[in-house]
Amino acid sequence: MIEQVKRYPGEVTILSVGAATNIAMACQQDDCFAENTAGILYMGTIVNGEGSHTPYADFNVFYDAEAFSVCLNSGFPAQTIVPHDAARSVMLNKAVFDLMYAKGRTYISKMWLDDQYSLYRRSPNRTAGCTDAAVAVILLNQAIARTKEERYVAINTDVSSAEYGRTLTWKEQPADTEVAFATFIMEVDTGVYWDFVTDLICHMQSPTAENYSYYAENNGL
Question: Whole-prediction pTM value?
Answer without folding.
Answer: 0.85
